[in-house]
Amino acid sequence: MLMRKTSYLAGSVALATAAILLIAGGTAFASNTGFKMNLAITLNPAGAETAFGDNWVSIPYNNPYVNYAGLCTQLGLASTGGPLVAKATVSYLDPVSGSFTIGGTAQCGSATSATLNLVAGRAYLLRQPAAAGGPASVIIVGSHNPTAPITLKNGCLAAGCSAGVPGPCPAQQSTPKSNNWVSVPYHTTAINAQDLCNSMGLSQTGGPLVPKALIQIPQPDNAGVPFLTAVCGTGAALTTNLVLGRGVNIREPVTGDGVCNTPVKSIIPAHF
């Protein structure tokens, strides 16, 4: 029987769907388990352009939301009131263009929110204005699709950027392109960033001059350090823990000047 540490699953309730969950010093999961989780979110200061309150949320691969509008409604995000009333937004960052506009951004309650469908495997950015009186926590429900793959896009080393830089070079990190915001399964086998590197087969081998994959874990309540960043194959990746319910950003580099945003890996995230 595979066991999970209960401390890692604090706040989460697993609902059996054709499976029996046994709790005996830990929590056992099957691949067809459903989930219901009370996820705390950080409110975004009204009118503020800040990373504080950027909640990158993992959405179960099978879920009842369908589109942005469904997510807004079922999570109880602020969506009503006149044009001067602050409302929540849902966004996805397109890895090819590095654009939220192309990836899809909509205000809750808008007509656009009903036209943007959720895609399995993607993590979405939720911004709930503090002034709107919206919830400080939301209930996420759904189950996993164990056959749904995630396609990662290559990181890009800009012209003149040496491949002899450990991890993605500064020019690569400064662009929003090739950011793969991924939903981590709620019953993932991974505890830290290095576990994801291993299970997803991310670039991490070679000497210190060989570029390696990079993983970012969001900290929505820390505007000064909005992400914890770890390079695969390093000690930092072993000590950078995942946070249940939060999505992660994965940047997969190339080993020299190359074509940006080409599909590089199709992966199925490991889970219990």
Radius of gyration: 19 Å
Order of helices and strands: EEEHEHEEEEHEHEEHEE
Mean pLDDT: 79
User: Which geometry do the CA atoms define?
Assistant: globular
Count of alpha/pi helices: 5
Number of structurally distinct domains: 2
How far is the N terminus from the C terminus? Answer: 10 Å
| Secondary structure tally: strands | 13
Query: Which regions are unreliable across 5 or more consecutive residues at pLDDT < 50?
Result: 1-31, 162-173
In terms of structural class, how would the helical and strand content be classed?
alpha+beta
The percentage helix is 10-25%
The strand order across the widest sheet is: 3-6-4-5
Strand portion: 15-25%
Mind describing the biggest β-sheet? 4 strands, antiparallel
